[in-house]
Amino acid sequence: MIEFYCSDSKETEKVGRAIGIAAGEGDVICLGGDLGAGKTTLSRGIALAKGVNESEITSPTFAIMNVYQGSKTEIRHFDLYRLDRADELEDIGFAEYVGGTGLTIIEWADLFWEEMPEEYLQVDLANFGSGRKVTLVPHGGYYEMLCGKVEEIVNFRD
Ligand SMILES: Nc1ncnc2c1ncn2[C@@H]1O[C@H](COP(=O)(O)OP(=O)(O)OP(=O)(O)O)[C@@H](O)[C@H]1O
Ligand SMILES: [Mg+2]
After folding, report:
1. C-alpha 9 – ligand 1 centre gap (Å)
2. How many domains is the chain partitioned into structurally?
3. What dihedral angle (degrees, nearest 10) is formed by the CA atoms of 123, 129, 130, 132?
């Protein structure tokens, strides 16, 4: 488990960029945290690091899923907030998208933890003073390694 304190949205985006630099094809990043905690901001950092155009990156709250083309990787950006039941995930073909090729980012994954794959990187965001606390919790050996890389990248860029 690794914690970062982000005093403003640029810093939240920076942690996202570090995750985007470290993460690759097939990786799954699950974001949890209250309304307005910074999930989309962090997702933007991930997508930017993958070479997605800034103007393409939006909150998928209404679309449920956005797809972005990065320079090498396709990015699928989910927001599960508006889903009520786990079987709605089936309707949108969630399981077919997650993992496999591309990089998957899931906002509001905490509403459906039991539907997430066996291994993933959990990112929890929480209000902390006027900023945010970002906690990375790896699930599985690969994601432990990924967390180590993210920590190195964030510290290197300080
Ligand atoms: N570290 C931070 N400190 C202060 N404000 C921040 C920080 N990170 C993000 N924000 C701001 O918080 C607001 C909400 O951010 P964002 O939309 O990313 O949250 P979210 O978790 O995706 O929200 P939602 O629950 O609606 O999906 C934005 O105005 C953003 O700039
Ligand atoms: Mg959001």
Report:
1. 7
2. 1
3. -10
